[in-house]
Design a protein that fits this description.
This protein has 344 residues and is α+β, with helices and mostly antiparallel strands. Helix content is 18%, strand content 30%. Bound molecules: FE2/S2 (inorganic) cluster and fe (ii) ion.
Length: 344
C-alpha cells in the first residue's frame, strides 16, 4: 500500500479556517489588556468597561509599540508610547498631539470574538464566521455546565494529536483496551465537521470485557465530533453516565501543539445537582487525563509520516481526506506597511 501525502494535514504553519481558542475568559479582566501569540501572530486582547473582549493586531500602526503595554479607557485602548487611541473596531479615535484626526483612516485589524465554555474564541477565516462555535452533539440544545481542564504542549502538529483519538490500534496497545471493541465509523457532516462513532461490540471473552458489558447495552460508547482538524468533542463512558470533553488545539509558533481540555455535563438543578455536576466534571477530567498521559512519550518524539496505511487505519485516513478539503487561511501574511503621508 502507498503512503499518504498531504498538503494540509500535519503541515506546520498551514492554518485552516475555523474557531480557535485564545485565552480563558477569566484571565482577561475588565479594564485590562493582555498580549497573546496565536500561531505565531501577535495579538492584544482587552476587556472594556462593557465587559466585551476585543482582539486587535498587537502592534500600533504609528510606530509599532505593543498595545498590551497600553491602557484600556472605557471600551477603547490607548497606546502607551504616544497615546494614540483605538476603538473596538480597530479605528484610531484620538491622536493627542493633533487637534483633528487625519482624513485617511488609521486602523488596526480586528477579529470576531465569542466567549463560550469559559474561553475566548477567535474566528480565523477567509471571510466572516460562517457558523457559530461548535457544539457538543450529545448535549445539543440542552443547558450545560463546563469547566476548563488541563493545558498542555505536545511536540507534534495538532492534526497528529487529533488522529490519536481515532487510532483504533493504539487503544489496544497503549491503553490496553481488550479485544477489538473499537470500530470507528466516520460520518462527514459538512465541510468543517466530521463525526466518528464506535460500532464495535464487546465480546465477552475476557474478564474486563465481561465487566464492561454490564454497563453497555450496545457498543462501547465512544463518539467524536471533529472540527477543522484542531477541535474535537469526545463522548465516552457507560450508559448511565456519559462523560463529555473537548480538546481544543492550535499550533504553537513553532508549528507544534498547544492544547486545552474543556469538560462538559448537562446542567442539573439544586444543591445536589450542583454537587453532581462538580463531581462528574471532575471524573471527566480524570478520564481525559488518563488517555492524555498514555500517549505523552509518543508525542515527544514522533516524526509523523504515514508510510504504510492499513485497513485498521481507516478512520485516520478518512479524517485526513476530510481535512485536505478545508480552507486554508493566510494567517502569517504581513499587513501592509505603507506610510500615511498625511500624518507625517
Ligand atoms: S507607537 Fe503607538 S502611539 Fe506611537
Ligand atoms: Fe491515546
Amino acid at each position: 500500500m502507498q503512503g499518504i501525502e498531504t498538503k494540509i494535514f500535519n503541515q506546520p504553519f498551514k492554518v485552516t479556517e475555523g474557531w480557535y481558542w485564545l485565552l480563558p475568559s477569566k484571565s482577561v479582566k475588565r479594564g485590562k489588556a493582555q498580549a497573546v501569540n496565536l500561531m505565531g501572530r501577535e495579538l492584544v486582547v482587552y476587556r472594556g468597561q462593557n465587559d466585551i473582549a476585543v482582539v486587535l493586531s498587537a502592534y500600533c500602526p504609528h510606530m509599532g509599540a505593543h498595545l498590551a503595554e497600553g491602557k484600556v479607557e472605557s471600551n477603547q485602548i490607548r497606546c502607551f508610547f504616544h497615546n494614540w487611541r483605538f476603538d473596538a473596531k480597530g479605528n484610531c479615535t484620538d491622536i493627542p498631539c493633533l487637534s483633528k484626526l487625519p482624513s485617511k483612516n488609521i486602523s488596526l485589524k480586528t477579529w470576531h470574538v465569542v466567549e463560550r465554555y469559559q474561553m475566548i474564541w477567535l474566528w480565523v477565516g477567509v471571510s466572516s464566521p460562517t457558523h457559530d462555535i461548535p457544539e457538543l452533539p450529545e448535549l445539543a440544545g440542552q443547558k450545560m455546565v463546563s469547566a476548563l481542564g488541563n493545558r498542555f504542549i505536545k511536540q507534534c502538529h495538532p492534526n497528529v494529536v487529533m488522529v490519536n483519538a481515532i487510532d483504533e490500534q493504539h487503544f489496544h496497545t497503549v491503553h490496553k483496551l481488550p479485544g477489538s471493541i473499537l470500530k470507528m465509523e466516520p460520518e462527514m457532516i459538512d465541510q468543517y465537521n466530521i463525526r466518528f462513532s464506535n460500532s464495535g461490540r464487546l465480546q465477552k471473552n475476557t474478564r474486563i470485557s465481561r465487566l464492561l458489558s454490564r454497563f453497555y447495552q450496545g457498543p462501547l460508547t465512544y463518539t467524536l465530533s471533529y472540527w477543522y482538524g484542531h477541535l474535537g468533542f469526545v463522548t465516552f463512558g457507560p450508559d448511565f453516565l456519559r462523560l463529555n470533553l473537548m480538546f481544543a488545539l492550535r499550533q504553537t509558533r513553532e508549528g507544534k501543539t498547544e492544547g486545552q481540555t474543556i469538560v462538559f455535563t448537562r446542567h442539573r438543578k439544586g444543591i445536589m445537582g450542583y454537587l453532581a455536576n462538580a463531581f462528574i466534571l471532575f471524573l471527566t477530567k480524570l478520564g481525559g487525563r488518563y488517555f492524555a498521559i498514555g500517549d505523552t512519550r509518543v508525542f515527544q518524539t514522533i516524526q509523523f509520516d504515514f508510510k504504510t496505511p492499513i485497513t485498521a487505519d481507516r478512520a485516520v485516513i478518512f479524517f485526513i481526506k476530510h481535512l485536505e478539503q478545508q480552507r486554508v487561511v493566510n494567517w502569517h501574511g504581513r499587513e501592509s506597511k505603507k506610510i500615511e503621508s498625511e500624518v507625517v
